[in-house]
Amino acid sequence: MSLKHFKARDFEEWEKGYRINFFNSLGGFKSLNLIGTKSKSGLSNLGTFFSVMHVGANPPLVGILFRPTTVPRHTLQNIHDTGYFTINSVPESILFEAHQASAKYDEGVSEFEQIGIAESWNAGFPAPYVQNSGIKMGLSYVEHHQINANATTFLVGKVEECLINETALSDDGFVDHTLLDNLAVNGLDTYYKAQTVRKLPRAKVETKKES
Amino acid sequence: MSLKHFKARDFEEWEKGYRINFFNSLGGFKSLNLIGTKSKSGLSNLGTFFSVMHVGANPPLVGILFRPTTVPRHTLQNIHDTGYFTINSVPESILFEAHQASAKYDEGVSEFEQIGIAESWNAGFPAPYVQNSGIKMGLSYVEHHQINANATTFLVGKVEECLINETALSDDGFVDHTLLDNLAVNGLDTYYKAQTVRKLPRAKVETKKES
Question: Quick one: which H or E segment has residue A199?
Fold first, then answer.
């Protein structure tokens, strides 16, 4: 296997676009999600996120990384203002629209309307969901941490409710995203379908490889 | 589409294993990585991680979430002690071994040896790499944040060097993990191959959907 070796000096010498593509794809596949919020003035907002992370099961916590706040970040601002947001999985049928939600729309315009993604509301929950998503979480703000090294924000939310297409829910609680054609992503723009290779039993020290 | 609605009270009433499976899989696909470290006493350590996150391209930063430190976390301890670690992608050929690295091996035992994953060293870098990985990063510790809500730790590292199988590297800097059979994961135990659906041009407000 021929491996190419890059060092810090190479990273600095690379053209900006090359460096962005490289480091956005280096770590591998990510989940693709749409985050729905409502502004103080009642406007619905939708953003594409590749940075949703499992933080804990009890209490149920999810983390999201937000880019530096040097340009307006409507999603982050709305979460701070209202305390609530939704995370929605993206099936292949709305890939174009989901990707489009990463464009920089003007303030005062709902991305749901502009992009053509239907929004839906669940009684009692104060943020908008994506109607055509099969796995949706409604979350409340818990805490956030500023990453000093590059002014990004790691925000943690608590799952207050879920809406799940029953097709995806296994008897043991596992949520199978492949059964709803939900997508993964890498880099800035490359979307993937996933195909199950294997489900393995819990790893124990004494487990031996099957021949 | 029939959606099942779960609320906070349901989450609390679920059996623990069901709740763990549910919330570990709810957010969708994750990258699968092995993290290599060296202890103060010079012992190599290897751990399976599903929580590697892109934090920034310039400087190149990566985030990892660590479970609560209520039980010994060798990887986290070694990073604090030595300041360095490696992140290694997992091709299908070493899936069993990678999964096995999540078992709780005793202290004083190198997981590389116990599991049968060959370790490799790159001159001048003070943490061990996985030999059969085609995408490897060598990182230095930058900062960490304690998540108050559940005592997990979000740690940020800086990419100091990379070793990449040239097969995976596109002309624009994009690293294509599918070309090396690297895996994604969801839940605690379900591994996936990815298949490219589409690479889309950068989203602009004026972009129209192709018919």
Answer: strand A190-199
- Is the pLDDT at B189 greater than 60? The verdict is yes
Q: Could you say which residues from 64 to 83 on chain B have a Cβ atom under 8 Å away from some Cβ of chain A?
A: 65
CA distance B129 to A189: 29
The whole-angstrom distance between A128's CA and the closest CA on chain B is: 15
Spatial separation of the C-alpha atoms in residues A92 and B196, rounded to whole Å: 12
Q: Which of A19, A161, A204 sits opposite B103 (nearest CB)?
A: A204
Question: Could you tell me which of B88, B87, B86, B75 has the C-alpha nearest to residue B39?
Answer: B75
Q: Would an 8 Å CB–CB cutoff place A57 in contact with chain B? A: yes
Q: Which run of H or of E encompasses B160?
A: strand B152-165
Name residues whose C-beta falls within 8 Å of residue A124's C-beta, 6 or more positions apart in sequence: none
User: How buried is A197 (Cβ within 10 angstroms: 0-12 exposed, 13-18 middle, 19+ buried)?
Assistant: middle
Give the whole-number percent of chain A exceeding pLDDT 70.
96
Cα(A136)–Cα(B10) distance, integer angstroms: 16
Centroid of chain to Cα A102: 12
The structure's pTM equals 0.94
Q: So what's the pLDDT on residue A184?
A: 95
Pairing of strands B33-38, B44-49: antiparallel
Cβ proximity of B45 and B111 under 8 Å: yes
CA separation for the pair B136, B127 (Å, rounded): 12
What is the rounded distance in angstroms from the CA atom of residue A138 to the CA atom of residue A146?
23
C-alpha torsion sign, points B69, B75, B79, B81: positive
**Chain A contact for B201, CB < 8 A?**
yes
Quote the CA–CA distance of B76 and A62 in Å, as a whole number: 21
In this predicted complex, what is the ipTM? 0.94
Alpha-carbon distance of B143 to B120, in angstroms, equals 26
DSSP 8-class letter at A201: P
Taking every pair of Cα atoms in chain A, the longest distance, rounded to a whole number of angstroms, is 62
User: Rounded to the nearest 5°, which phi and psi values hold at B40?
Assistant: -55, -35
Length of chain A: 211
The 3-state DSSP composition of chain A as helix, strand, coil percent (nearest 5) reads: 20, 40, 35
Give the pLDDT of residue A47.
93
How big is chain B, counted in residues?
211
* pLDDT over threshold 70, residue A70: no
